[in-house]
Structures are given as C-alpha cells and as structure tokens.
Amino acid sequence: MGRPPCCDKDGIKKGPWTPEEDIILVSYIQEHGPGNWRSVPTNTGLQRCSKSCRLRWTNYLRPGIKRGNFTPHEEGMIIHLQALLGNKWAAIASYLPQRTDNDIKNYWNTHLKKKLKRFQSAFQTQEPQLPGTTSTSSSPHYKFGNDDNVATQPQLTSTCYASSTENISRLLESWMKCSPISNPKHHDNDDNNNNNTSYHGGCVGEQDDHFETLMSFDNLNDHKESMVTTTCDSVEEDIINEGGNKVNENIDSMEEDDENNPPLTFLEKWLLDESTTSRQVTEEILRLPSMF
DNA sequence: AAACCCCGCAACCGCGACCGT
DNA sequence: CACGGTCGCGGTTGCGGGGTT
C-alpha cells in the first residue's frame, strides 16, 4: 500500500548469492537462530535486505532441505494438498518438510500445472469417472496426475550452484571445528519457523548431505510444535471457510467417521494412509498420465 | 559449431497479516 | 484503537543451462 520496497536503498545488493555471503548468513544464524531478520544485515554486514536474507535461508540454506527429484509420493501429496488447500504453498510445504514452499510452487507451476492442462484437454471429450468421485466437475483438481518422466527427470544438474554449497560446507567445516554449536536463542515470531519442521536427519540431495551434517542443530526442532499447530489451524479454516467445496466426498465421509478427531488428524490420515479411498483415487490418477 | 529457443529454478516484488507501542 | 514496523506468502521475473535446428 504504497510502502517502498525494502530493497530500494542504495548499496543493497540484489541477485544471486555468493558462497561467501552464504557463509556469513549461515554463521550468523547458527549463532543467533533464524528470525529477527531485520537485524541480520546490520549485524552481519551483508549488503542484503532482510527479506533477501530470510529467503536465502528458508529456500536454500536451511538444513534438511531436499533438492532435486520429486518422488511420486511427494507428487501425490502435492496434488492432494493443492486440491484441498489451493495455492497455499506454505501450508503444503509444511506437510513436505524437506521441501520449501518455493520448490513446491515451482514444481507445481512448471510440471503439475502443465499436466493438468494436458489432462483436462485430453479428458474434455472422454469425461472419465474417477473411482471414489461422484462428479469430475466437483473435484477438478484431480483431473491430472503423474507423468512418469517427471519424477525421474533430473532436476538439479551439476551447476555452480551445487558447488557453491560444497564450498560453503568446506568453509563451514573449519568454522564448526573451532565453534561449538551454540544454543540459538529462539525468537518470538513463530511464523519464522513455519518451515522448520525437519532439521534432523532425513534424506537430502547428495550435494547437501555434508551441508546438512554441518547444519543439523537439534534445538531448532523446538519450532516444530508451533508449525504443526499453525498448519492444523489453517487447514481447518480452509475446510470450514470453503464449505468443503474443494473436498470430495471421500473426505466428507472421512470427516463424518472421524468427527471426534481434530481436522488435522483426519487430514493427515487421509494424506498418509495408503488404504484410504482418497489415496486410492490419487493412485488411480497417478496411473492415468501414462497415456500422455 | 553457432544461433536460437525452451525450460527450470533462484530470487525479487508487492501485498496482507501480525505484533508491539 | 490507531499506527508503524516487520515478517511471510504468493505471484512473477530473469538468468543460465540444455536441447534443438
């Protein structure tokens, strides 16, 4: 609303981050924890705006990030959640803690959206009745599925980007040796930690596993609870606000079955339980694109 | 081999929400 | 309650790499 961009100031650098900048940022966050982004450029001397620092951290430097291929299961989750929540990438990302919202958004826009178009155009004449659905028009988001090529397609080829991460890892290694991991002071803003759901273990891209080892400070796990609560609330709100419009009958029936359970419970059950009907629907969808 | 085109991804931008004063 | 500052989210852009001609 007329507020000038935070990055308009002179001397604020834009564009790709250098490994050196990454090291500075990571070192600072290791010491102070994520959050209070406003003070990051000041305290680190980085010629970046606070937004840029936060973005760099959440989308690339944050530990536990998985890069590269999306598995069919991840794809199915995204399809499910997009159908449920719409373009709430942050909410979707909270169910795929190793993926960033940006990653998911990009993947949706570059892969899944196209598949939707292909699928819809191909089925405009055929109007298939998906199992478990009463009407294809009532659940339009399900009108597409997995392209075999997508999951197997290498998405992160060897680039200077990956080598940058390795450089950072190398440089950080020496830093870590002489700097025992401090206990980052948590900041009040829960939103800062929305994506910090998996700082421990998990599979990361091969170029990042070294990095992850360096970055796996356990105390960040404390942020989990607030994230889950937030997600639960937002999902519940979405379901209520939209009157279940985006939720097909399978979910409605599940909701009735689980009406004593919190919404998150049934949603997670729906998403994760391989035996649920809706899961079967997705599997059906995932099988469809082989014809394209 | 060079030029061109397409695609994927990292980063930026603008806006709304939230929080403290 | 109003206002200003900060943060997070979603949409968009632009660059670089790979593929094609």
UniProtKB/TrEMBL annotation:
The record, for CDD domains, names: SANT (cd00167)
Q: Which residues form the HTH myb-type domain?
A: 9-65, 66-116
Q: Where is the composition biased (Polar residues)?
A: 125-140
In terms of Pfam families, this protein maps to: Myb_DNA-binding
Q: Which SUPFAM superfamilies match?
A: Homeodomain-like
- Tell me the Gene3D superfamilies matching this sequence: Homeodomain-like
Family matches, as SMART domains: SANT
What does the record list as GO biological process?
response to abscisic acid; response to auxin; response to stress; stomatal movement
Q: Which GO terms describe its molecular function?
A: DNA binding
Q: What UniProt keywords apply to this chain's record, in alphabetical order?
A: DNA-binding, Nucleus, Repeat, S-nitrosylation, Transcription, Transcription regulation
Q: What top-level branch of life does the organism fall under?
A: Eukaryota
Per the record, its GO cellular-component terms are: nucleus
**Region of interest (Disordered), residue spans:** 125-150
Compartments where located: Nucleus
Q: Which residues form the Myb-like domain?
A: 9-61, 62-112
Q: What's the protein called, per UniProt?
A: Transcription factor MYB60
Source organism of this protein record: Beta vulgaris subsp. vulgaris
